[in-house]
Amino acid sequence: MQYEYLFGLHAVKTALKRDARRVHKVLLLQGRRDQKIQALVDLAEQQHIKLQWVAKAELEKLAAGQVHQGAIALCEPMRAQSEADLVQLLDQLTSDPFLLVLDGVTDPHNLGACLRTADAAGVHAVIAPRDKSAPLNTTVAKVACGAAEVVPYVQVTNLSRTLKMLQQRGIWITGTAGETDQELYQSNLTGPMALVMGAEGQGMRRLTRENCDQLVKIPMAGEVSSLNVSVATGVCLFEAVRQRG
């Protein structure tokens, strides 16, 4: 089994609470005995997960420049969910579906930031095409600060087909495009909906755009013509949260 590392108190704690089956072992800083470390010890012992106290130099070597805060978890790799898992999730929802679709977001830092924002906004799942999308990895997990273990990340073979399936379930597809006339704050983001964010530069692919029910843009007042995709995602999701509140 090839394991991957999770770095940081919050990421390790979330993995132990939400996805303990993936955790093989937890490495903790030798000599540190504060409340935050004790909380990890308690969770690991409850889940019968092996603990190992190691020197700071060993943690630094494993972290390879990343901030570990005295805690590293050795985990099985995260795996994206499938379209069948998405259908099951939708069938079980008791409230209007609130979904985020990322079309062509390949940077794991951006994916991690989008997952973190999606969790904060109450998104039920994040959907992406299997090709030309960032995979779940340790960078995503670190940037997401625990959200990667909480928010379902669904990778589908055919995004256009998935969007049509969502529409058949009464879910309104809202895409983002800089050239449209309709501004975000003039649009209706209530009810069952999926927000589609395209890759930086290229935006949404043609077939994805054609499957959107409406296109909206974030009004830009300065010289910059576009925002980083994770920042734009936060702006759009929380406008939807405001409207849905």
Protein model, in words:
The chain has a six-stranded parallel sheet with strand order 7-6-5-9-8-10, sandwiched between helices. Strands 1-4-2-3 form a four-stranded mixed sheet. The protein is of the alpha/beta class and 245 residues long. Helix 1 packs parallel to helix 2 (35-46) and helix 5 (108-121) runs parallel beside helix 6. It has helices at 9-18, 35-46, 56-63, 83-92, 108-121, 138-144, 159-168, 206-210, 229-244, and strands spanning 4-7, 23-29, 50-54, 71-75, 98-103, 125-129, 153-156, 172-176, 193-198, 214-216. It is built from nine helices and ten strands. The termini are far apart. It has two domains: 4-75, Ribosomal protein L30/S12 (60s Ribosomal Protein L30, Chain: A, 2-Layer Sandwich), CATH 3.30.1330; 83-244, Alpha/beta knot (3-Layer(aba) Sandwich), CATH 3.40.1280.
